[in-house]
């Protein structure tokens, strides 16, 4: 860790460092931080364990980069970042580091965790129920976090029935509005639909971000299957009709089901 931090200091040295690293700021590095977190998730999703070590290193380096810039600005140091995290984990796990009993369910521990976090927010003068939900989160993840916060004070549907009804309602509104609304209004209608779908996922204890990643991977896998099947016929997707590609898509689905049995 000391070596990594020294490398970061050298990279940011105004006289002898790397011009690119010297020019960076919190704002310019933040997108890379998000990207590296997704690459960690991608390696785990693919079970690419040989890649995970490097991806975790890339993500760690992002923390070191931000901390170095903060230290240069006189804000805080990497050691303070680590101390803050250590203090937070100890405070949020009194059943491990304190005298509370560990004899409780994971669900109860989750409720206790949220209670502790609420107290922390109160200490930061975050008075609103939705205060502190990071704006920079992926939109689906942030939607679920906002919904969970609202649900704590009873602003929530009691079961999935009304949620499914709301999805139908929002889908109808999109269909009705597609030819009459402008781009911004249509964007809002699609946003409403996605927000309710995220709510359905939450009620079913499904992470919508993870579900969409799976759907993306499935689409990519099956479309590549279409390309392989067409290539075996000496053709490309551009040379095939929609009906032909759809037939290959269905063949890929059947092959996947047969392979999973």
Automatic annotation (TrEMBL):
Residues 230-261 are annotated as: Disordered. Pfam families: MazG. Residues 245-261 have a biased composition (Basic and acidic residues). Residues 24-97, 165-222 form the NTP pyrophosphohydrolase MazG-like domain. InterPro entries: MazG-like_dom, NTP-PPase_MazG-like_C, NTP-PPase_MazG-like_N, NTP_PyrPHydrolase_MazG. NCBIfam families: mazG, PRK09562.1. This is Nucleoside triphosphate pyrophosphohydrolase.
């Amino acid at each position: 860790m000391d070596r990594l931090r020294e490398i970061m200091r050298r990279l940011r040295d105004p006289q002898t460092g790397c011009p690119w690293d010297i020019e960076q700021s919190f704002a310019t590095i933040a997108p890379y931080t998000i990207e590296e977190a997704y690459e960690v998730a991608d390696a785990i999703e693919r079970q690419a364990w040989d890649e995970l070590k490097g991806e975790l290193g890339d993500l760690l380096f992002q923390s070191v980069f931000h901390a170095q810039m903060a230290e240069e600005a006189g804000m805080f140091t990497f050691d303070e970042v680590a101390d803050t995290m250590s203090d937070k984990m100890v405070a949020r796990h009194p059943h491990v580091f304190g005298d509370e009993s560990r004899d409780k369910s994971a669900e109860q521990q989750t409720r206790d965790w949220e209670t502790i976090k609420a107290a922390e927010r109160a200490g930061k003068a975050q008075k609103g129920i939705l205060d502190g939900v990071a704006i920079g989160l992926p939109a689906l993840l942030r939607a679920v976090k906002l919904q969970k916060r609202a649900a704590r004070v009873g602003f929530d549907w009691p079961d999935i029935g009304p949620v499914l009804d709301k999805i139908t309602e929002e889908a109808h509104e999109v269909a009705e509005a597609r030819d009459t609304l402008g781009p911004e209004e249509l964007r809002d209608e699609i946003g409403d639909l996605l927000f309710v779908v995220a709510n359905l996922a939450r009620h079913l204890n499904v992470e919508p971000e993870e579900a969409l990643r799976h759907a993306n991977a499935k689409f990519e896998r099956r479309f590549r299957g279409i390309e392989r099947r067409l290539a075996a016929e000496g053709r490309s997707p551009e040379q095939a009709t929609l009906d032909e590609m759809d037939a290959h898509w269905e063949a890929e689905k059947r092959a996947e089901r047969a392979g999973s049995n």
